Amino acid sequence: MASTADFKNGLVIEFNNDLYTIVQFQHVKPGKGPAFVRTKLKNLKSGRVIDNTFSSGTKVNLARVERRPYQYLYKDDMGYYFMHLESFEQVHVQESLIDNHEFLLEGVSVEIVVHADTETILSVDIPQMVVMEVTYSEPGLRGDTANNALKQAKVQNGATIMVPLFVNTGDKIRIDTRDKTYVERVKG
């Protein structure tokens, strides 16, 4: 048991007979009335984000979750396969449990979030930044830089992102996987 004073981002709680992770929270003390905590909760099974308000001091049940290190191996028609870095045990994960799966590269290290009581996989956390090679992009026009002009580029796993005009086919770029945006061009 924990109270609303223990809330922090990433905490997994049992709410409405389901598991939710706290995405965002804010303690509010209005001029009149009791204090409360405004939260955004993400359902770990469906991925849906809901808003909820808890009265200050409300008790909630914490879910015991573990973050385990795995390495991405390959994908087939059944889903994605990962290998535990310590026991070398392989697990199969469905695509719906992986946010931004199009940025997974073979051999990359990930964290798999597992509900410790039932040993069920809740989600797969891929790295926040990945380096990928641009496989196709239209050439940028010289002098077309009056404002932050962007163009579409396809990266090695087939994902399409928006990049600045100076990025060409064959360049390696760093991508933020949280919002699928270009960060910088990588040398070498």
Polypeptide structure, described:
The chain is mainly beta and 188 residues long. It has 3 domains: 2-62, SH3 type barrels; 65-125, OB fold (Dihydrolipoamide Acetyltransferase, E2P); 129-186, Nucleic acid-binding proteins (OB fold (Dihydrolipoamide Acetyltransferase, E2P), Beta Barrel). The chain contains no helices and 16 strands. The chain has strands spanning 2-3, 12-15, 18-28, 36-43, 49-55, 59-62, 65-76, 79-84, 90-93, 109-115, 120-125, 129-137, 150-155, 160-164, 172-176, 181-186. The strands form 3 sheets. The chain has a 6-stranded antiparallel sheet, with no helix packed on it. Strands 9-8-7-10-11 form a 5-stranded antiparallel sheet, with no helix packed on it. It has a 5-stranded antiparallel sheet with strand order 14-13-12-15-16, with no helix packed on it. It is flat. The mean pLDDT is 88.
Produce a short descriptive summary.
This protein has strands spanning 2-3, 12-15, 18-28, 36-43, 49-55, 59-62, 65-76, 79-84, 90-93, 109-115, 120-125, 129-137, 150-155, 160-164, 172-176, 181-186. By secondary structure, the protein is an all-beta fold.
Keywords:
mainly beta; SH3 type barrels; OB fold (Dihydrolipoamide Acetyltransferase, E2P)
Topology:
Blueprint: E1 2-3, E2 12-15, E3 18-28, E4 36-43, E5 49-55, E6 59-62, E7 65-76, E8 79-84, E9 90-93, E10 109-115, E11 120-125, E12 129-137, E13 150-155, E14 160-164, E15 172-176, E16 181-186
Antiparallel strand pairs: 1-6, 2-3, 2-6, 3-4, 4-5, 7-8, 7-10, 8-9, 10-11, 12-13, 12-15, 13-14, 15-16
